[in-house]
Design a protein that fits this description.
single chain, mainly beta, Chondroitinase Ac, Chain A, domain 3, Immunoglobulin-like, 2 domains, six-stranded antiparallel sheet, 17 strands, 49% strand, elongated
Length: 287
């Protein structure tokens, strides 16, 4: 005969703890998002990531090979989800190259939707993996635009630097009446347009309004602002065709200085007319 004891209160909860622990350890647990501070040429960049099946030991950058090296301690098959700021590392030709312990192609790599100016990779790795290499171009160079577009407005040409992933830029045009820059793209996948807007071409009193294919729910991050230009990183989905960037000022614009010049000209004409009329009134009339 087996004696059964009915446990109550905290003792009952404690008795269940081993069972709960065994149940939890039967699953891969997703860790909360962490951030690694990556130093490149004396500047620190924050790299958010999540990992299951192990932990991240270290991250280093090799600017010569444009490679981000992630050292991990894997205790099980797992996944590394990492947000890579495009100003740190980008793959201007499309996809990143990924290697695990020096080998490529024997694992799954997915690129998720861009987030806050970063490209997001989800990389599966096997138990025992030690190093993940993510290769792209360029690295640690502030994502200097390399493909300026020659934009013509009222007979003047302005250079608009930009970079794009997930497609290509077909054309740019300006509508000074609505203060809008129209960018036509050919998107082959979800991607990002990073565009540098000279303030003497287009500017906004606050944030720019961005519309993609007529819809105003675009994800936009203003990644850099200087006295001369503002840089926007605009996420778009596969199949997107047109990006509209709307500001509050655009050349040519009838500004305050132009108004002063025009007013001065009007005043000068009135004075000249008045003097001429006075001079005519002093002339003897011919009879």
């Amino acid at each position: 005969m087996i004696l059964q004891t009915k446990l109550k209160g905290p003792i009952a909860l404690l008795s269940l703890f081993p069972s709960i622990l065994l149940t939890i350890t039967g699953f891969n647990i997703a860790y909360a998002q962490e951030t690694f501070s990556l130093e490149i040429d004396g500047q620190n960049y924050q790299i958010p990531y999540e990992i299951t099946g192990g932990s991240v030991n270290n991250m280093t950058a090799d600017t010569n090979t444009q490679t981000l090296l992630v050292a991990i301690n894997s205790t099980d098959d797992g996944t590394l989800t990492i947000e890579i700021p495009t100003e740190v590392l980008n793959a201007t030709d499309g996809e990143f190259s990924v290697f695990i312990d020096g080998e490529g192609g024997n694992f799954v790599v997915d690129e998720l939707a861009p987030k806050d100016g970063s490209r997001v990779l989800q990389i599966e790795f096997p138990n025992g993996a030690e190093e993940i290499e993510i290769v792209g171009t360029p690295m640690g160079q502030g994502q200097q635009p390399t493909e300026p577009f020659s934009l013509k407005i009222a007979g003047q040409t302005y250079e608009i630097p930009y970079e794009i992933t997930g497609g290509s830029v077909k054309s740019m045009s300006a509508d000074p009446v609505t203060k809008t820059l129209l960018v036509t793209i050919n998107s082959t996948s979800a991607g990002m347009l990073t565009i540098q807007l000279p303030k003497n071409v287009i500017d906004a009193g606050g944030a720019f309004s961005v519309v993609i294919d007529g819809k105003g729910n675009a994800t936009v991050n203003e990644s850099k602002t200087t006295g001369q230009a503002r840089t926007l990183s605009i996420e778009f989905s596969q199949g997107s065709k047109q990006i509209e960037i709307m500001g509050t000022s655009m050349v040519p614009e009838f500004g305050v200085i132009s108004a002063i010049v025009l007013a001065s000209g009007v005043v000068a004409v009135l004075i000249a007319s008045w003097k001429y009329s006075k001079f005519r009134s002093l002339q003897p009339s011919s009879r």
